[in-house]
Amino acid sequence: MAVTRASGLLELALRQHVSLCWRCPSQLRHLVVSSRCNTQTPPKRPVGAFLEFAHSQTVEILRNNPDVSRRESLKIASQKWHQLDPQEKDERTRVVRERYKEYQRQYQLYLQSLTTEERDRLDEQRQFRRKRLAKMRKKRELKNLGKPKSIRNAFLLFVKSSRLETRGANPTTVIQRLVENWKALPKDEKEIYYEDARLDRERYESEMKAWEDKMKDIGREDVIRIKSRTKKQKVTKAPARKVKKAKTKAKTKANSKAGTKAKTKTKDTKATKTRSKSAKTDTKSTQTD
């Protein structure tokens, strides 16, 4: 069991190492290793009233009860916080608010002492932390929704099954040794891991299809893959050139109709005028007779 736990921890470290080295943007990679600004250390943000109370209580609980785990001690501390006197709660929150005001004042002084380059670096660090927190929240949400575990390739399956001693060793050296062991592995043994990876992919696809159908039923299509979302029926629009041609044809047709109507009107008026003239000449001739 200790070996499997160590291999699981090693796999997690490997994933984090790969994500930090290759998935992180190039302009933010230096922030993972970079230290804080060189002028002076920023003031430490004060802890909230509940966290301060919980920390003091967990230390005391763990000291008196060594068999209790840290998670259970936090549960006991939260129960004690809920049972705490309201006046004591208000006093603790008031003290924390005063500390926070002092922290804000010191932080403004700290920002004023920085150069423009150091401020830009600080903003980059803040953005990087926000993105990382948003990614962690998204991952936690997907885990709570029951998303299947991601696919593991042949090398990761080899890492999980390897019995390499990792206690007290540097993670980078461990990863290098694992890569060397993987390269030195015979081809027929590698094929076993490739087959396991293929089966794992099939497992992932089937579980993902069932999970995505479930997410569609509860109205959470935003968390599923784009290719699995219900395709909206696209309204076929005519090309712009055809629309323009149709419009110009309609205009010319309307103009031609209007022209023919005007021509017929002028012909009618001319005919009526000639008729009226002929009628007048007839009446004059009858009068002379």
Low-pLDDT sequence parts: 1-7, 13-39
Order of helices and strands: HHHHHHHHHH
What is the average of the pLDDT values? 77
- Strand % is under 5%
Number of strands: 0
The geometry reads as: extended
Quaternary assembly: single chain
Task: Calculate Rg over CA atoms.
Answer: 40 Å
Q: What's the end-to-end separation, in Å?
A: 139 Å
In which range does the helix fraction lie? Answer: over 70%
Enumerate how many helices there are, as a single number: 10
- What would you call the structural class? mainly alpha
Provide structural commentary:
Helix 1 packs antiparallel against helix 7, helix 3 (49-64) packs across helix 4 and helix 7 (154-161) packs across helix 9 (187-217). It contains ten helices and no strands. It is an all-alpha fold. The longest helix has 49 residues, at 240-288.
Task: Give descriptors for this structure.
289 residues; disordered N terminus; 10 helices; mainly alpha
In short:
This protein has 289 residues and is mainly α. The chain has helices at 2-23, 29-33, 49-64, 70-82, 86-112, 116-144, 154-161, 171-183, 187-217, 240-288. Mean pLDDT is 77; it is low at 1-7 and 13-39.
Set down the secondary structure blueprint.
Blueprint: H1 2-23, H2 29-33, H3 49-64, H4 70-82, H5 86-112, H6 116-144, H7 154-161, H8 171-183, H9 187-217, H10 240-288
